[in-house]
Amino acid sequence: MGVLAGQGRRRRLVILGGGIVFVFTLLAVASAHSFAVLLAAFVAFYPASGAFVSLTQAEIMDAWPDRQAQVMARWDLAGAAGAVAGPLLLTAVLAVAGGGEAGGGWRAGYLVLAGISALIWLGALLRGRPQPDGRTAAAEADEAGQRPWTARCAEIGTALRDWGTLRWLLLIEVADLLVDVFTGFLALYLVDVAHLTPAVAALAIAVRLGAALAGDAALIVILERVSDLTVLRVSAAAAALLYPAFLLVPGVVPKLAVLAALSAATAPWYPVLQARLYGSLPGRSSVAVTLSSAAGLAGGLGPLAVGLVAQSFGLSWALAGLVLVPVAVLLVPGRGGPSARSGAGASGRA
Known about the structure:
With about 350 residues, the protein is mostly helical. Helices cover about 80% and strands about 0% of the residues.
C-alpha cells in the first residue's frame, strides 16, 4: 500500500479513503451479531488502519524532514495516551452499561471510537495536506505523477541493500522485545515467577503504561535540547542497568519503582529509531512504510521465540535473555546518516 500510494495527491486520497473504511469497520464491529461479520470487520480494519494511520505518519515525516525525531516523539505521545485511555474507556462503558444486554458495554466502546475517528477524519480533511519543507527530485516527480509504481518498487530493493536503512529496521524490531513484547509477558511473569497477586500484576501494567506516557511527554522537551542519538544511548545505558534490577530486586514496591523507571527509559526507543528510519530514506517515506510493515511481520517471531524459550527453560530464563536488547541499542553508531540533523540544533523551526 505504501508503494502504490506514493506521495502527493494519490497518497492523500488513500489516507482519506482509508479513514472512511476505518470508521465503518468500527461501526461494523459494534453492530456485528455473527462471527462472519465480526471477522470481516476486523480483517478490513487492518489495511484501513495502514492507509489512515501509517500513511499519515509518512506524510507528517515528509512535512518536517529536519525535525523528524521531535515530530515522532509527539506521535508516540499520542499513541501512549491512547494506550492509557483505552482501558479507561472500556471501564467507563462497562460501568455505564451495568446490568444491560450482554456485550452492550464493549459495543458502546467501539461506537465511541468510531465517533472519535470520524472527528479525526474530518479534521484531516479540513486541515489539508502538510506542505513539506523540502523535496527531493524523486518526490517532486512522484507528486506530479511522472513516476510509475514500478520505480517505487525498485526503490525497495535499493533500500534493502543499504545497511543504514537495514540497521534501523533491525533495531526497531530488536528494541520492541523490551517494549511491547516484554509488556505482553509482564503480568504472567509477575504472577508465575515473582509470585505476586493478579491484582499487583494489573497494577504493574498500569504503572508501566503511565510511566511510558510520562517518558514520552518528557522526550518532547528533551529532544529540543539534546540530540536524538544521545538520548537513545543514555536511555539504552539506563535500561541495561534497570532491566536486570527489575528481574532481581525483591518486594512489590521496589519492583514497581524499577519498572516505572525502566518504562520511562525505553520510551524514546520507538520514536527515535522510527525517525532515523525515515531519515535514512529522504523523500521515500512510502518506502519506509512498506519496509516497516514487512519488518513488523518478521518481528512477530519475537513473542514466539520468547514463548518457546519459556516453554523449554522457564519464563524467568526467557525474559533474562532480553538483557541483550539494551546492549544492542547501545551499540548504535555515532553518526546516523541523513537523519542526524533531526536532533538538537534543528529545534528553531516551528
